[in-house]
## 1
Amino acid sequence: MLPIFMQKTFTYKNEEISYSCQGKGALVVLLHGFLENKSIWNQTTRFLSKNFMVVAIDLPGHGDTPCLGYVHSMELMADVVNELLKHLYKRKCHLIGHSMGGYVALAFAEKFADKMYSLSLVCSNARADSKEKKLDRTKAIKLVKTKKNLFVEAAIPPLFNTEQKNHKRAINKIKKMAHDTSIQGTIAALSGMRDRYEREIVLKFAPYPVLIIAGEKDAIIPVQWLKEQSELPENCVLEIMEDIGHMPFLEDRIMFETLLMRFLKGV
Ligand code: MLT
């Protein structure tokens, strides 16, 4: 049975931003990826909340948080995270971002470095989209406008490494989240990711510890990029999860939780 956490909201730009909260201790903020929502972190929340106050937020246009505009830039979403900290009266957090959530975490770290205990990137990276990737995003935006279902059905299965294990249940769960994400939310996130800035400099000058978790078989963020980027910070731990794709917390939950807890306890 999946745990049900306390659902709360705060207001930002006249909209209700939804988050869940569990546990006591130093604040850990979890940022989900594209087409996901805060519930993707339910198991991680349950585990980390033994030692930390764990908050998972629905980023704009995802889950129960409405759209804030037609483009959700990484900076806009970082401002929402900053507002969350203010709302909780917390000065600092351990920030953990999966994929698009990692792009948001980097934008937050750039603006608010003094509010970070640590940064964890899960299958995410600090580079901007290549020219080809930007074109793919623009094509995806066109497709989503008329055939979002097709886009979702094609986009979700490659997130998993299905060579090793059948991830049918997890794939269906993510597809449901993706189908529940509105067309405007999907397009706003695609536009924001396409137009995001490169932030390797944020990693290079990170004054806090950095964890990078990479999936060896990740088809979205190649492990080689993460090997290279893990050389940038002075204090960085790189964990490469063997035979894992883009969804380590679903593909090997126990290993993922162990790596994360070890890092957070060591900060
Ligand atoms: C995600 O999982 O958040 C996205 O696949 C990231 C991306 O498309 O760059």
## 2
Amino acid sequence: MTSSATEDSISSIKAEALERLSAATDQDSLERWRVEFMGRKGRLTGILRNLGSLAPEERREAGAAANRLKGELEAAFEAQSALNKRAASSAPTDAIDVTLPGRKTRPGRLHPSTQMIREMLAAFNEMGFQTVEGNEVELERYNFDMLNIPADHPARDMQDTIWINRERVGADGGILMRTQTSPMQPRTMEQQDPPVRIVSPGKCFRIEATDATHEWQFHQVEGLAVDEGLSFADLKGTLYEFARRIFGADRKVRFRCDFFPFVEPGVDMSIDWNGRWVEILGAGMVHPQVLRNVGYDPEKYTGFAFGVGPERVAMLKYGIEDIRHFFNNDLRFLSQF
Ligand code: FA5
């Protein structure tokens, strides 16, 4: 073989090797390429071996060209190998593997507050109360004025109420996040004549120093019954029956006097929790002024109302030690219900 023949074959090997290398996009074809061009019996090695048959002058030139090619092919090989590895690692990992065994889907579930509210509503619905829903953003008129809560009552203060607009505008007053579901009492009575028998669930908001039994957002279920001849016995009977349905017949229940400006007399009801009384609701006979405010005749009609906290009820029913679990969105808590 002559030197020029060797150089011809070096440049044709180079062209072919580089073209084939760019098509070797996986590790197997890359390895086949390496064996074919650079292996012990490979084509470049063949040329290097033949150098011995050339005259010394020609050998030097052809040897230098062959070594240059060797260096170029080695560098091209490394570059292609790196390219292949990068492509493999950035390949989509969410490709569907049809050989994987099937897994059970994890269905979502209702929030524990929602479950508790539904259970409570079902109990009251069976006793003849109809469910109505109200607004979370309320007018001062319904949250306070119509409920006989005086203008200087501390609950209207910045410390308890989250105000959207504190400024009084006409009879509606300011705008606030409702602090209780009781605005649904005058809202319902304004819309219909007695008899009334409703329950109204929803979220309430207060500026609270939170602790194990107080959140700044929580739910209430309001209840209201107005008719001729309703008495305190009806109130007690309804709430006893509610407690019996939710907690069972054996759970101890306690009524105590309490004050709310929109009832007279007023009570709260507590449930026995390991020897401790925990308050779950406020209640009472609807104040005559509240009936007058909506145009009902308090000489003809009487009524009772109550506001229950479903988170407190759930805590007692399921032994939850801290109300703050309800709104932390921790699946370890939520998935237990
Ligand atoms: C009221 O909100 C009255 N509107 C209840 C009422 C209705 C009285 C009708 C008379 C007639 P009180 O602030 O006590 O009252 O709240 C009633 C219930 O809501 C409490 O017993 C408790 O179960 C729940 N509750 C009140 N504040 C919180 C709070 N910060 N975190 C969690 N639950 C609360």
